[in-house]
Amino acid sequence: MSAFNIFDIAGSGMNAQSVRLNLVASNISNANSVSSSLGQVYKSRQPVFAAALRNVMDKQDAAGKVKVLGVVESQAPAVREYAPNHPMADKDGYIFKPNVNTVEEMANMMSASRSYQDNVEVLNTAKQMLLQTLKMGQ
């Protein structure tokens, strides 16, 4: 593996965690939204990641980038709450709230943030190692 591949791999990890952080922010910001119908209520969204391995059969190392395959909506049911005096209540007096669990989202945010920081540290360490290697030739 080339020393420069480290930058590509860590960069793809940072990109993946950035997508994850953006989805967490979206989920948390919509956690208290209210809808008058089940079809219009916000649904929690999560990223789907995969390792994009490069030529595993041709090389001894199986290093690869992180690939964001997409975003999936949670299939958990929305919260149905009886609130007949709410302005958005349906004809039966119910409002619908998103299926966002803020405790899980905060844990996701902390995990994504730390993973992003770890990738930054990998980049900084690789940069320092390459600089020290160049200084050996002087």
Automatic annotation (TrEMBL):
- Name a single GO cellular component: bacterial-type flagellum basal body, rod
Localisation per UniProt entry: Bacterial flagellum basal body
| Ranges where the Flagellar basal body rod protein N-terminal domain occurs | 8-32
Entry keyword annotation includes Cell membrane:
no
Pfam families hit by this protein: Flg_bb_rod, Flg_bbr_C
Key words, A-Z: Bacterial flagellum, Cell projection, Cilium, Flagellum
Q: What are the GO BP annotations of this UniProt entry?
A: bacterial-type flagellum-dependent swarming motility
Chain ranges of the Flagellar basal-body/hook protein C-terminal domain: 93-135
Q: Which InterPro entries match?
A: Flag_bb_rod_N (IPR001444), Flagellar_basal_body_rod_CS (IPR019776), Flg_bb/hook_C_dom (IPR010930), FlgC (IPR006299)
Please give the chief subcellular localization of this protein: other
NCBIfam families (UniProt xref): FlgC
Instruction: Report the sequence similarity comment from the record.
Output: Belongs to the flagella basal body rod proteins family.
Subunit architecture: The basal body constitutes a major portion of the flagellar organelle and consists of four rings (L,P,S, and M) mounted on a central rod. The rod consists of about 26 subunits of FlgG in the distal portion, and FlgB, FlgC and FlgF are thought to build up the proximal portion of the rod with about 6 subunits each.
**Name of the protein in question:** Flagellar basal-body rod protein FlgC
Q: What is the protein's species of origin?
A: Candidatus Methylobacter favarea
Gene name of the encoded protein:
flgC
